[in-house]
Request: fold
Amino acid sequence: MQKLSLLMIASAVALLSFTPVSNLSVGSKMPDVGSIAMKDVSGKDVTLQQLSTKSGLLVMFSCNTCPYVVKNEQRTSEILRYAANKGLGVAVLNSNEAYRSNEDSYDAMKEYASTQQYAWAYAVDKNHVIADAFGATRTPECFLFDGNGVLVYHGAIDDSPADAAAVKRQHLRIAIDEMSNGQAISTATSRSVGCGIKRLSKL
Reply:
């Protein structure tokens, strides 16, 4: 019985070690992580402050091999290109630190970005610091900030992450349009569906 109790406690602690330290709510300012340098696939260091523009910033947490990332590859490229064409900064962050020695290694990220013809930053979120600050848990998961660094949308690209043919509402694209036009965001949050971010155990 004592061994079972110890095992349950250890399991609970392990679960907590994979839990983000905070949850960023719509209407909140970007956490104080904008100056943290992240290694981009270009070989240069980038920060969220550098990538932000007067029009805003779109941050997407992603990776290389999650089935939901793969299902959303075309939609990801389309929405990121759309955001960039609207004058927004774009940052795709890979926070899978527990997988950094295999499919989410820096070299694998470079290869993936090349395959996907990324024209925007795809950077290593070392020790998932940015993901923790944002409360990000999934890949893909999107955070849209306005020109003042205020979060206006958080969630999925659209309402059908598993099936592009079944999409009825493009949440993120609509939010970008509404923000760009100075309108209130009609759907400010949606449920992100995807693989869990692979955080390091703190045990």
